[in-house]
Amino acid sequence: MTGRIVLLIGAGVSAESGLGTFRDKGGLWDQYDLAEVATPEGFARNPALVHDFYNARRANALDATPNAAHEALARLEQGWPGEVLLVTQNVDDLHERAGSSRLIHMHGVLTGALCAACGHRWPAPRVMTVTDSCPGCGASATRPDIVWFGEMPYRMEAIYEAVAQADLFVSIGTSGEVYPAAGLVEEARIARAETLEINLEPSSRPGVFDQVIAGPASEVVPLWVEKMLAGEIQI
Ligand code: OAD
Ligand code: ZN
Questions:
Q1: What confidence tens digit (pLDDT) does each residue in 164-188 have?
Q2: Which residue has its alpha carbon closest to ligand 1 atom 13?
Q3: In the chain, which ranges are E strands?
Q4: Does residue 75 contact residue 62 with C-beta atoms inside 8 Å?
Q5: Omega into 180 within 30° of 0, i.e. cis?
Q6: In angstroms, what is the span from residue 90 Cα to ligand 1's centroid?
Q7: 117: which of 12, 159, 210, 213 lies 20 to 30 Å off by Cα?
């Protein structure tokens, strides 16, 4: 019962904590124009609108609590004798609050602020505004530390390296529509890792994963983790 596990996490894992997903019916990208709130061009056009959007996301995330899926993944990290790495597309901090520590936030974090002028990073206040100034250089060019469309996700080299060494790659609660995250399963297959998808419903990419478990994350992830820790699943 050893082996290296890399898990790619998406919005479905936080859905049952009350955080909206993006592409499900009624999801965030039905309510908001992605081009206006999640691109550098949108931020340049209307920074106040973008801050409002992420202030609302931040308030939701701060008020939310980890669900049984987050807690189970923390137990996996603590109990698994091999390496476990969570690569999350989510910008909330529910994995940290559940106790996970081996975690890469490839799309950034709501708890962070970033200066577009000098690159300085600091903890975001609960409400960010266009007039905030950077504690490093003083410029009023502060933005949420979130990766927008058209920008390179964080720590891709470390992510590719981990996937290249993985024995098991698990994708949980993601639609697999946003690259480069969506391409990691192919990298895992090249590395001859086993691949498993856990999602409310199997993704639109049938046949890409070796195995699929369908169901709500808060129910199926704890069951899968218990089986892994009991040695009932060999990798
Ligand atoms: P999506 O909204 O695209 O997909 C969410 C997935 O979670 C869907 O496949 C749902 O079927 C599934 N799902 C919903 N509820 C679930 C539940 N209770 N249990 C298990 N699965 C559930 O979200 P992501 O794939 O995370 O990027 O989106 C990827 C990126 O697109 C995000 O990181 C964000 C977004 O635009 C940026 O903003 C840069
Ligand atoms: Zn600065």
A1: 999 999 999 999 999 999 999 999 9
A2: 12
A3: 5-9, 84-88, 103-105, 108-115, 121-123, 142-146, 168-172, 194-199, 211-214
A4: no
A5: yes
A6: 9
A7: 159
**pLDDT interval class at 1 (50, 70, 90):** low
Q: Is 105 one of the annotated active-site residues of the chain?
A: no
Q: What is the pLDDT of residue 206?
A: 79
Q: Which residues pair with 144 in a beta bridge?
A: 113
Q: What is the set of domains in the chain, with CATH numbers? A: 1-19+66-107+153-235 (3.40.50.1220), 25-63+108-146 (3.30.1600.10)
Active-site annotation holder among 51, 95, 107, 120: 107
How far, in Å, from the CA of 142 to the mean position of ligand 2? Answer: 8
**Torsion angle of the four alpha carbons 212, 191, 14, 23, in this order, in degrees rounded to the nearest 10:** -70
